[in-house]
Amino acid sequence: MFSFHVRHAALALAGLLLAGGLLLMRESAGTLADAGHSSPSPAIPVDVATIQYQTITDWHEYSGRLEAVERVEIRPLVSGTLTQVRFQDGTLVRRGDPLFAIDPRPYQAAVDEAQAQLTAATAQAAYTGTDLARARRLLASNAIARRDFEEKRNAAREASARVQAAQATLRSAQLDLEHTRIAAPIDGRVSKAAVTEGNVVGASDARPLTTMVSVSQLYASFEMDEQAFLEMSGTAASGVRTAVPVSMGLANEPGYPRQGRLAFLDNSLDPLTGTIRVRALFDNPDGRLRPGLYARIRMSAGTPHDAVLLREQAIGTDQAKRFVMIVDDENKAAYREVTLGANREGWRVIQTGLTAGDRVVVNGMQRIRPGDTVAPTPVHADGGALATGAAAPLPGQSPDEQHRS
């Protein structure tokens, strides 16, 4: 009786297991069927910028040094004892301001002596002139020999010559006296005095008393390579001063805030270095520019032209190739190989591969592959958010210019 109940329970359990297996198989089959009819993958969100042409000017960058437009060594033109130094080292002075004084007494004495000689020569010339006039009247009446008349005329001429010599001696002495007062020949900044009061100085001294440099304008001198020289416009390359724009920044200044112009191109290239000497002229209104300072220089090359610019973040690398991902009219991603040009402060010039109107992925390129469906969000060309209905601004374009466009 007990064995009968056991067999009955075992058969019931087997039936339950069989029914459960069939139910699981039916659910698995349903799941597989549902999987075969699943919805497509969602579109991948990316930021997209519409390409526009921008008018740009190519620039070349150089390193150089500042030079004074005018530099003068102050030297004495007469010898004597230095009695005064009439400036403070390193100060600004104006043309004509006194700088040094040399003891004038010996030169004043020379002027007095020359003046006395001129007075004597003038008196002698007056006497010989009167004597000649009297001899001319006597000669008319044959009251004097011709020989005596010629002697008096010769004496008058010699006296007149002595007057001219005395006048020249006086002017020379006066000039030497003026040279005892040494004044600034230009407007500019004076260096330190190399000689102090009490020293004897002279025109033959090897060391100048001091030096002066102009400060209102300075040159930035640098070397231009041959290729850049050939790219310049014909007018600028001819060596004529033109309005070729040149920008400059000092070592502690960001960018190139100072504007100048081309001032000089040398007449030949150095065959050893393949460069040509160039100077640009810059105003110095704040007085910060000093000769010898290091300068970063940027000069325009060629004429303005239209170009496509992209941020580096939107450009990928595929072995030796550079590429971007564009979005077509069906919002499908596509691979586009590009050729890069110059680097312009974080922007790259795209020489080939893109045209105006192309939509380029600028953020999210690493998440997509060619053929993927994307959900594009319009942004600026630099990746910044774009206001509703606004066009992407050109790099470097001000808000007012964007509004007008």
From TrEMBL:
Major subcellular site: other
Multidrug resistance protein MdtA-like beta-barrel domain ranges (all copies): 220-302
Chain segments carrying region Disordered: 371-405
Coiled coil found in the keyword field: yes
SUPFAM superfamilies from the UniProt entry: HlyD-like secretion proteins (SSF111369)
Composition-biased stretches (Low complexity): 381-395
Domain Multidrug resistance protein MdtA-like C-terminal permuted SH3 positions: 306-367
Domain Multidrug resistance protein MdtA-like alpha-helical hairpin: 111-180
Residue ranges of domain Multidrug resistance protein MdtA-like barrel-sandwich hybrid in the record: 71-211
NCBIfam families: RND_mfp
Protein name as catalogued: Efflux RND transporter periplasmic adaptor subunit
Species of provenance: Castellaniella denitrificans
